[in-house]
Write a structure and sequence with these properties.
This protein is α/β, with parallel strands linked by helices. It has 4 domains: 183 residues, FAD/NAD(P)-binding domain; 123 residues, FAD/NAD(P)-binding domain (3-Layer(bba) Sandwich), CATH 3.50.50; 119 residues, FAD/NAD(P)-binding domain (3-Layer(bba) Sandwich); 98 residues, Rhodanese-like domain (Oxidized Rhodanese, domain 1). The chain has 17 helices and 30 strands. The protein is globular.
Length: 555
């Protein structure tokens, strides 16, 4: 059997390595258009920022290493120009010699990846100081440019993973950074009330934000010197990073008549087989499907690409691995803040046909008496079944541990109650006696039944629409006087039982404290004495104020 692979970054080399581990007799050939192979795209911002000393550290293996370890050939600087499924051949152009040849295959794997988008007006010319951060060649050119030119101001177009990581790294190098984002919030993948914390962290580090805006025109010829935005902002620049997203590189597949999916990536089955039975697609060029909804999704990430590659290499050599889907889990660092997410957001859950509930949980990552700092967890579950559907977390520590626990739980279809019963590791330097994951499960499960929550967004809607409601602040008098929810009366927790007569048992009631724990006690008290409907304000007054601030647009 002859296996031919097009592409050798993450997915392509994973196919080849797994196939060789399973089968010593297979002929394996890899073609790569670029010079470098198997490099870390995700590590590029950290080299440009100086956290990684040399670019070579991002290229741990070359073609000779794979030849020596696995006995297969990787041909770099070779561009595959056509695929002919009817005769099982590809056409290959050698960039260095200019020669073209045909290569036969029994099984063909498309690992052609994705390419960075170039938005207008940057697509109207070529500029020496405008870059993507996608390939090793991009990274080397940015590094060279920064060494040869004084860069004081950098503009980043887009605020996804790469955009925010580059903002962090440039800022730490002393470069003034401006982010221009078309959406009305930073990192629009997560909810606005969680994105707010990223926006605040960027402002804290003196990054200028232009939200709900885009670059309209440019100044400069060979180099861009100033950006003019739709909202009338003028931004001086010495360097521009384009980070508005990627698109699957499907040109070879389309020309060969291979079916694309609804996402625009190549449609594949659970063993990554395309509409042509002897052609497979892996990595950023391929669709995946969502573990919860079962619907096609596009999630271009190195970890997913490696997984897909291993599955195909196993399948081609008689193995039983298959792709189980993705939750779209992600994580990144933004200065001293970590952001993690997995599964469905509240709105995504609604669109998928669930009746979701969302709660906010503010808890320390470990014991506060040895310096534990708060995490903010937003959890989503299905009200009817209790199935955990998703989570988003921001905080200075412990985010990675919790998002991975929650992703694992969601993968195995855990219910909210199951989270409470998880036997998680505890010691004061690492957790609290009830871990934030436990609390998330407890609050979600309570909210499904007789102890409902109301989100800040829902409460503000009630107030705006002037619906009958009574709001009770059960914090201390001094905290209430400092700031409180509109129309809230004050009855501290110790006073609540004695002051119940001033409240109307038949009126929908919202109770809140700082973060939600004390108000849960207050909720039980009121329900036990006959109140009909009592809500806890999700995340307490702290989260309510976060949400109100998140409604402010722009910078």
């Amino acid at each position: 059997m002859k296996i031919v692979i097009i592409g050798s970054v993450a997915a392509g080399t994973s196919v080849a390595a797994k196939a060789r581990r399973n089968d010593e007799t297979a002929e394996i050939v890899v073609y790569e258009e670029g010079h470098d192979i198997s490099y870390s795209v995700c590590g590029m911002p950290y080299f440009l920022g100086g956290e990684v000393d040399t670019v070579d550290e991002l290229i741990p293996r070359d073609a000779k290493w794979f030849k020596k370890r696995f006995e297969f050939d990787i041909h770099t600087n070779h561009r595959v120009t056509a695929v002919h499924p009817e005769v099982k051949e590809i056409e290959v152009f050698h960039k260095e010699t200019g020669n073209t040849k045909t290569e036969a295959y029994h099984k063909l794997i498309l690992a052609t990846g994705s390419y960075s988008l170039t938005p207008p007006p940057f697509n109207q010319g070529t500029f020496d100081n405008v870059f993507h951060v996608k390939t090793m060649d991009n990274t080397k050119k940015i590094d060279q440019y920064m060494q040869n030119n004084e860069v004081k101001h950098a503009a980043i177009i887009g605020s996804g993973f790469i955009g925010l990581e580059m903002a962090e790294q440039f800022t730490q190098k002393g470069i003034k950074v401006s982010i221009i984002e078309l959406a009305d919030r930073v990192f629009p993948k997560i909810d606005a009330d969680m994105s707010y914390h990223l926006q605040e962290k960027l402002k804290e580090n003196e990054v200028d934000l232009y939200l709900g805006d885009k670059v309209e025109t440019l100044e400069g010829n060979q180099k861009v010197t100033q950006l003019h935005t739709t909202n009338g902002k003028d931004i001086p620049v010495d360097l521009v990073i384009l980070a508005v997203g990627v698109k699957p590189n499907t040109s070879l597949a389309e020309a060969a008549g291979i079916k694309l999916g609804d996402t625009g990536a190549i449609s594949v089955n659970t063993v990554m087989q395309t509409s042509e039975k002897d052609i497979y697609a892996v990595g950023d060029v391929a669709e995946s499907y969502h573990l919860i909804t079962g619907k096609p999704t596009y999630h271009p990430l190195g970890s997913t690409a490696n997984k897909m590659g291993r599955i195909v290499g196993d399948h081609l050599t008689g193995g039983s691995l298959s792709f189980k889907g993705t939750l779209g889990t992600g994580i990144f660092r933004l200065f001293d803040l970590t952001v993690g997410y997995t599964g469905l957001s509240y709105s995504e859950a609604q669109k998928a046909g669930f009746d979701p509930i969302a709660i906010h949980n503010i808890k320390p990552a470990h014991a506060t008496y040895i310096g534990g700092k708060n995490l903010l967890i937003k959890g989503v579950a299905d009200k009817e079944t209790g199935r955990v559907l998703g989570a988003q977390i921001v905080g200075p520590e412990g985010v990675d541990k919790r998002i991975d626990v929650l992703a694992t739980a969601i993968t195995f279809k855990a219910n909210a109650e199951d989270l409470f019963h998880l036997d998680l590791a505890y010691a004061p330097p690492f957790s609290t006696t009830k871990d934030p994951v436990h609390y998330t499960g407890m609050v979600l499960e309570n909210a499904r039944h007789e102890l409902p929550v109301i989100t800040p967004e829902e409460l503000l809607t009630h107030l705006k629409e002037q619906k009958p409601i009574q709001i009770v602040d059960v914090r201390s008098k001094s905290a209430y006087e400092k700031a409180h929810v509109e129309q809230a009366m004050h009855l501290s927790m110790p006073e609540l039982r004695k002051g119940i007569e001033v409240l109307d048992k038949n009126l929908p009631t919202v109770v809140y404290c700082n973060k939600g724990v004390t108000s849960n006690t207050a909720q039980n008290v009121l329900l036990n004495v006959g109140f009909k409907t009592v809500y806890v304000l999700s995340g307490g007054h702290t989260n309510y104020q976060y949400y109100k601030k998140s409604l402010r647009k722009g910078s």
